[in-house]
Specification:
heterodimer; A: 220 residues; 6-stranded antiparallel β-sheet; 3-stranded mixed β-sheet; 24% helix; globular; B: Copper Amine Oxidase, Chain A, domain 1; 10-stranded mixed β-sheet; 5-stranded antiparallel β-sheet
Chain lengths: 220, 323
């Protein structure tokens, strides 16, 4: 029988009001945790354990552009309903994992509510860095070459998309510098940027179905 | 509550419902692990659920894989009809997305087909995908053969191609991608989708395809099922039956193999393989074998010649001449 999970505070944006479909998962994954940090840790770990990283291809997020057609870095739309309905749920690239982790954590009232990118979108047209050994969700340990990465960050880093190092260390409340040095083996082009100009935002969530999602890459 | 109160509530409800009168709303329903939605309240592509299913593999059509409903949402297939069809202008699209699980390894296989209201190149192209994702795509297929009008791939496990009004993505998710990934398996799946696009009863490719006529003893056979895939004619194995071949099909959950024999010569083909076994050894195929409506589709000339059948082509007419 499902137990009602009660936390000390009400759901936060973007999960305010919280979606029942998200609460159903967050309550299941954070069962037994009553403190904010414990819930955030459990949700990050369960997301990695249940997730399927898609190899870094477009998934359930779309970007915004300005009147000149240039990408805006401080916004992102996450198609949460479509993500929840995917036959391989939880499935997507780093944006999807970060935005969904924000939804999970804020749904139980913990104020960890922002996703952060390592690079401006305009700089993502080529590989920017090589990772150390990581284990993406649902995959074997690997080293990857990425144009950017996205994770959850307020004053510490939370990342349900990967674990670090040979021993698979979870990224649960790491400090930013420690996370970066753990993840990056070599900068191949542009170093990680501060935010701004790189994106750092509360993701917008959308309740439309997969067929209603606009073609890649624009939300507007 | 007095009479005025009841009246006030009734008036409020009527006021709420009045603006919705005459409007059709998007529909969503579930059938056997399939989540289906239709947003065509204003515009429609005219494609049905069956039309969309005809564009991908059946739930039991890929040997070694089965469709398992996702434990969290119960879905193995998403069908979305008339996406954006609740607005009077802009893109209009229907899609089908289906996931399979490998019976032995647990690897996840995924095929997504999207059909637009006009040439898909107006909405999706390689250029659109050249930034904004963590990993960049590479132009071309795994084999180097041209699938559709444009194709690109990511790593060894994801292939994208566009043909007419249709975009297709085939992806495989493995725990040990580096060791196990087989891009050619993904590509064989993609060629099967390309065949389905060209076979589709609703016109999905821009240029009308000139039909291929196959003659055996001057009689047409396999009408409508014989087409050219990027210059190579493919046909269902059954199209060769009038040449007096005997066919033996072995189909289990993990294997789909057909052996054809004729006058002491034989060929053995397997679903999604790029080669065939023959009485003279293994032969690499110009196009992979794939299933369609309960049959395996094969490269016609190579298979016929391996069985001792001469193939003569004049324009769009091909004659099989048993020796």
């Amino acid at each position: 029988m499902e137990k009602l999970q009660i936390y000390s505070d009400e759901p936060k944006a973007p999960m305010n009001p919280a979606w029942v479909s998200v609460l159903r998962i967050s309550c299941q994954w954070a069962r037994g945790e009553s403190m904010a940090e414990g819930a955030a840790i459990a949700l990050t770990q369960r997301l990695w354990e249940n997730g399927h990283y898609n190899g870094g291809n477009p998934g359930y997020t779309r970007y915004f552009r300005d009147a000149n057609g240039l990408p805006i870095d401080d916004r992102e739309r996450f198609y949460l309903k479509a993500f929840l309905e995917d036959p391989w749920f939880p499935y997507g690239q780093c944006n999807d994992f970060a935005d969904f982790l924000v939804c999970l954590i804020t749904s139980v009232g913990v104020p960890i509510d922002k996703a952060r990118r390592t690079h401006q979108l305009l700089l993502t047209d080529d590989t920017n860095f090589q990772t150390n050994w990581i284990t993406p969700a649902g995959q074997a340990p690997t080293k990857a070459e990425w144009t950017y990465h996205q994770f959850v960050f307020t004053d510490h880093v939370w990342d349900g998309c990967l674990t670090l190092g040979e021993y698979g260390n979870f990224v649960i409340g790491m400090n930013f510098d420690g996370y970066k040095s753990g993840l990056v083996e070599a900068i191949l082009r542009y170093d990680w940027q501060s935010a701004p100009p790189a994106g750092w935002f509360v993701p917008e969530v959308s309740a439309i179905s997969a067929d209603q999602m606009p073609p890649w890459p624009w939300a507007n | 509550m007095n009479g005025w109160g009841v009246l006030a509530i009734a008036a409020f409800v009527a006021g709420m419902l009045a603006p919705m009168a005459g409007q059709s709303r998007p529909r969503e329903w579930r059938v056997n692990g399939m989540l289906i939605s239709d947003n065509g309240t204003v515009r429609s592509l005219g494609l049905t659920v069956e039309d969309m299913e005809a564009l991908t593999y059946g739930i039991d059509e890929i040997p070694g894989y089965e469709c398992r409903p996702n434990p969290y949402n119960g879905n193995h297939t998403i069908i979305g009809l008339n996406g954006n069809g609740d607005k009077p202008t802009g893109w209009l699209r229907s899609l089908i997305l289906r996931g399979w699980t490998n019976l032995a390894t647990g690897a996840l296989l995924r095929v997504e087909v999207r059909v637009y209201d006009k040439a898909a190149g107006e909405y999706e192209s390689y250029e659109n995908y050249r930034w904004g994702s963590q990993v960049l795509p590479k132009l071309g297929s795994f084999s180097g053969l041209p699938i559709g009008e444009e194709c690109f791939h990511y790593g060894k496990t994801r292939l994208w191609f566009r043909e007419g009004r249709v975009v297709t993505e085939v992806a495989l998710l493995l725990r040990r991608e580096a060791e196990l990934a087989d891009g050619l398996f993904m590509e064989a799946l993609a060629w099967g989708i390309e065949y389905r696009i060209r076979q589709h009863p609703k016109k999905l490719v821009g240029m009308a395809q000139r039909p291929v006529t196959l003659l055996v003893a001057n009689k047409p056979v396999g009408q409508g099922k014989i087409i050219s895939l990027a210059g190579v004619t493919v046909a269902p194995f059954s199209a060769l039956e009038p040449t007096k071949i005997s066919l033996e099909t072995k189909r289990t959950k993990t294997d789909w193999t057909v052996t054809a024999s004729r006058n002491g010569r034989w060929v053995k083909i397997k679903a999604f393989s790029w080669e065939m076994e023959t009485d003279k050894g293994k032969v690499k195929l110009e196009r992979p074998v794939f299933p369609y409506k309960g049959e395996l589709i094969v490269p016609l000339r190579q298979v016929a010649e391996a069985l001792g059948i001469s193939v003569q082509q004049k324009g769009q007419t091909i004659a099989l001449l048993p020796k």
